[in-house]
Amino acid sequence: MKKSYVLVLFVMLFATTISVAQVTVKFQKPASWTSVNLYTWGPELLGGWPGAALTETDGWYTYTFDATFTAANLIFNNNGSPQTANYYTTADVCLKAAETANGAGEFDVNVVPCTAPGMTVKFQKPASWTAVGLYTYNPSVTGGWPGATLTETGGWYTFTFDATYTGGNLIFNNAGAGEQTADYIMSADVCLKAADVLNGGGQYDLSVVPCTIPGMTVNFKKPADWTNVNLYAYVNGNSIVGGWPGIALTEVNGIYSYTFDASYPDVMVIFNNGTVQLPDTQVTTSTCFQSTDGTTITAVDCSTFTGISSVKDKSLTIYPNPVADKLNFSSSSTIDRVTIYSITGKNIIDVTETANKGVVDVKSLKPGVYFVSVYFANGKQQFEKIVKR
């Protein structure tokens, strides 16, 4: 009899040490979204639409329900619009949204591994290749030659290593059909483009390029009475620059400009000042627009816009390159601003100048490849690539 009491007491004590499992969902948003909210229904646990605002940590937007959670339908959204398709869950899950909307105007979600992704390499193949393989060594993580077969999405052949990968040698090839790139030693996220002709060693050289492929550029001259300009843009009814009124544009020499990613060959744009908007306008190529009355919009010859030019300022000098601590720049033209971007397009350093030369402190940058954008007082802009040691 005493043994029974002891057993019951032990079971009760053990039970008190066990915490009820809580359900956690993790989400990776489309690149075009600027925020993430989570709405649930059946039951509605996070209030009315658009639900709870989530914050990003280590690439994930995460929400942990309390211990009473048993199941619910999930809809992630960009502060109301656009939104993902519905996903029903009863357990921990990690989800990644598609980069483009489906036929219903929603972003499909797929279950992905919850382990933190490691470094990612993106590759653009030679025009003559019909397939792409990725072989790695020191260490070998994609199997024997020709390695992993990659598929193309949005103009890139992409491979993401797991978090244990710290770097090594990469060789891209045309799926083992006899051609390959030169070796590239990877130590961080990188985007690479192969030359279209062989080098003297019978291989294709690789160059580091921006991870965002620039596409069409729209340039706009606002009505005189507007004090600001926003650009709202959509494809198939879905915003690609966030909710209304879109993104705020900055003025350079009287022109407001925006460059879309090359994955968008056809975009509808609406220039507005937050209150007044111009008519929806289709853009299929780089174009210059102006509005004088705030009601109509007209396409004009870009040569009439001061500063719209593709000619580089040959006097611009950026040195040293590679750079360790201080990056110097000089030009015979007056420089308004110097901006340094990561290869993923993230603005890292922004320095305002009104001179012909200056210095940018880059000591805090991690070793790798970066891009420098120099904005001149005459409205011109020039890009250069640097390597941080």
Task: Describe this protein's structure.
By secondary structure, the protein is mainly beta. It has 1 helix and 33 strands. The chain has one helix at residues 2-16, and strands at residues 24-28, 36-41, 52-54, 56-57, 60-64, 72-77, 87-89, 93-97, 109-111, 117-124, 132-137, 148-150, 152-153, 156-162, 168-173, 184-186, 190-194, 206-208, 214-221, 230-235, 238-239, 247-248, 251-252, 255-261, 267-272, 281-283, 287-290, 298-300, 317-319, 326-342, 347-361, 368-376, 381-388. It has a 5-stranded mixed sheet with strand order 4-5-1-8-9, with no helix packed on it. Strand 13 (152-153) and strand 14 (156-162) form a beta hairpin. The longest helix is centred in the N-terminal third of the chain and has 15 residues, at 2-16.
Describe the structure concisely for a colleague.
The protein is mostly beta strands and 389 residues long. The protein contains 1 helix and 33 strands. The strands form 7 sheets. Strands 4-5-1-8-9 form a 5-stranded mixed sheet, with no helix packed on it. A 5-stranded mixed sheet has the order 13-14-10-17-18, with no helix packed on it.
Count of runs of 4 or more consecutive helical residues: 1
Distance between the termini: 76 Å
> Percent helix among the residues?
under 10%
User: How would you describe the shape?
Assistant: globular
Q: Low-confidence spans: pLDDT under 50, at least 5 residues? A: 1-19
What integer is the average pLDDT?
A: 85
Strand order of the largest sheet: 4-5-1-8-9
What is the strand content? over 45%
Give me the secondary-structure category. Answer: mainly beta
